[in-house]
Specification:
Helices cover about 55% and strands about 0% of the residues.
Length: about 80
């Protein structure tokens, strides 16, 4: 956390001296960064779940059911 950010809803001395427009811009950038982090984390979780399902399907010898099916890694005997 930088000196210019708010701490527990209270402004630090550095942010109190800043013009309101600059402070608002920094708050907007911080919000966008937080939203981006949440979006990326959600995408990462979804990707991990897809890869787990794909790995399990390959272990069981079944084909991947997504478009552009991948062949099974081994055949059942």
């Amino acid at each position: 956390m930088s000196i210019d950010e708010e701490i527990d809803g209270e402004q630090t001395a550095a942010s109190a001296d800043m013009p309101a427009s600059k402070r608002a811009r920094q708050e907007q950038l911080a919000r966008k960064a937080a939203e981006r982090d949440l979006r990326l984390k959600a995408q990462l979780r979804a990707n991990l779940q897809r890869r787990k399902v794909q790995t399990r399907a390959r272990r069981e010898g079944e084909e991947d059911s997504r478009p552009g099916d991948l062949p099974a890694s081994r055949e059942k005997r």
